[in-house]
Write a structure and sequence with these properties.
With 511 residues, the protein is an alpha/beta fold. It contains 19 helices and 15 strands. Helix 9 packs across helix 11 and helix 12 packs across helix 13.
């Protein structure tokens, strides 16, 4: 069927958004953009037990950070507002009743004690209990009570639920855009609750189907964990008479642990030291925190690029994709059926690739906050230049502080090992001579300083290693850091001489 592409990301605000959820949002977004369609954000918050304050904001902020734009939905509005299911509660009862009237659903009045009794009996027979066609005839429901009794119970304020009346022994034929043909016999399925009088709210299944229809969703792209619900969803569309306008479905493969077995969890991240959430999260209830890619120093583009390739295969060797390239290349038939193993090292690799490709101006934007945090005020030009010099050695944004600090700060102390090794013998004297050489240089550019100093070293028959390491001790105070001529050119003659003088004045040579 040819109809406008309308997809939705429909998270439940039950906690921070897992990166698997971000990938679902991303694939929906890529699909929408690829087909000139609409991306909807719907918040499925009908499970009041699992509602977590702050989770919705977290989801919205995460999508923003990732560059996943919402066309319609919570926070944006649109023709089908409201997009938060708790604000649509009045809509659903009518639809649940419609199913009861059509014989596709029924009222159930059973109490927890009655259910428990049947569960026990089933266990005694060695069966696993399921609320299904066998059980529903043994409980007080609108299938076993008279219409008058049902009306009486409802009027008396008895609690009830509406359950789907799962047909017995029917094979549901389904199509998934990633998995192809799928079929399931309904005798393996139970009678799911669709609506609860206790909180006057629908369950996920009812609200999801009704809203997808009302919002004219054309494609449902969601995680594999929803595949078992697909037969029920097909039957719900049929029960409503919507089969010919129901969305197409695509169930995305799981994100697997780095070791392969099982779904990637927060525990894996904690154990192996990587985030499984896009942003830092603090639980309002327990105060428990979880790290995020943003705070760990990843670029959103790198994060997205990495996620896009976890389950989607572009069919070429290309690994680096801008969002636009992902949009242009994305198709559901290149999404794999099998789970995608998450590799934390690969996430870092992607970030490094993006780091190396950044312009000085882009680097300045991420480096300035780090410098400021350490009390350093400098221009964007200088921050960007310093970061640009060092970017090849950086993986995460935070690395830029370690790498660039030498350009902005004279050593506060001297690394002991480096001092023991080089601050002795002729080196202090040679450093004094080098100071004079440097003082005499007018063109303090990297190339010129290097040329003059090297000539001086050679003419005197000095050791390059000894001289350069002694200079390194003076300029950065450590055995690591940027190239020496990068430093001299960056900090200039005056500061170079000042740092040399400080070493000569403050550190007694070793014997
Ligand atoms: N609210 C469901 C979730 O949290 C949505 C599943 C679907 O997309 O149908 O994943």
């Amino acid at each position: 069927m040819n109809r406008p592409v309308r997809v939705r990301f429909a998270p439940s605000p039950t906690g921070p958004l897992h990166i698997g959820g971000v990938r679902t949002a991303l694939y929906n977004y890529l699909f929408a953009r690829r087909h000139g369609g609409t991306m909807i954000l719907r918040i499925e918050d009908t499970d009041s037990q699992r509602f977590v304050p702050g989770a919705e904001n977290y989801i919205i902020e995460s999508l923003k950070w990732c560059g996943i734009e919402i066309d319609e939905g919570v926070g944006v509005g649109g023709p089908h507002a409201p997009y938060r299911q708790s604000e649509r509660r009045d809509i659903y009862l009518k639809y649940a009743r419609q199913l009861v009237d059509a014989g596709w659903a029924y009222y159930a009045f059973d109490t927890p004690a009655e259910l428990e009794e049947l569960r026990k009996q089933a266990e005694e027979r060695g069966e696993t209990f399921a609320y299904n066609y066998k059980v529903r005839t043994q409980l007080p429901t609108s299938l076993t009570l008279t219409a008058a009794e049902v009306a009486e119970r409802i009027a008396a304020g008895d609690q009830w639920v509406i359950r789907f009346k799962m047909p017995e022994n029917e094979t549901v034929q389904m199509h998934d855009l990633i998995r192809g043909h799928v079929e399931v016999n309904t005798s393996t399925l139970d009678d799911k609750v669709l609506y609860k009088s206790a909180d006057a709210l629908p369950t996920y299944h009812l609200a999801n189907i009704v809203d997808d229809r009302l919002m004219e969703v054309s494609h449902v792209i969601r995680g594999e964990e929803w595949l078992p619900s697909l037969p029920l969803h097909y039957l719900l569309y049929r029960a409503f008479g919507w089969s010919d306008v129901q969305p197409e479905f695509a169930h995305l493969p799981l994100l697997l642990k780095p070791t392969g077995g099982g779904k990637l969890s927060k525990r894996d991240g904690d154990k192996m030291g990587f985030p499984v959430f896009p942003l830092f999260w603090k639980s309002p209830a327990t105060g428990e925190t979880a790290r995020g890619y943003r705070e760990d120093g990843y670029f959103p583009e790198a994060f997205i690029n990495m996620l896009a390739l976890l389950g989607w295969n572009p069919g070429t060797e290309q690994e680096i994709f801008s969002m636009q390239e992902l949009i242009d290349g994305f198709s559901l038939d290149r999404v794999s059926k099998s789970g995608a193993r998450f590799q934390p090292e690969k996430a870092k690799w992607f970030n490094a690739q993006y780091m190396h490709r950044k312009s000085d101006a882009e680097l300045a934007a991420v480096c300035q906050p780090l410098l400021r945090e350490h009390g350093i005020e400098t221009s964007d030009t200088l921050a960007g230049r310093a970061a640009g010099i060092m970017k090849e050695r950086a993986t995460l944004i935070g690395d830029l502080w370690d790498l660039t600090s030498y350009f902005f700060q004279a050593p506060a102390e001297y690394d002991e090992k480096q001092a023991r090794k080089y601050w002795k013998g002729n080196n202090p004297q040679h450093l004094r001579e080098l100071r004079q050489v440097l003082e005499g240089i007018d063109d303090f550019s990297l190339e010129n300083t290097e040329r003059v100093v090297h000539a001086w070293i050679e003419n005197n028959g000095y050791s390059m290693g000894q001289i350069m390491n002694t200079l390194r001790l003076a300029l950065v105070g450590a055995g690591k850091g940027p190239g020496m001529y990068d430093v001299t050119a960056f900090i200039g003659k005056e500061e170079t001489l000042r740092r040399i003088d400080a070493l000569l004045a403050n550190l007694t040579p070793q014997e």
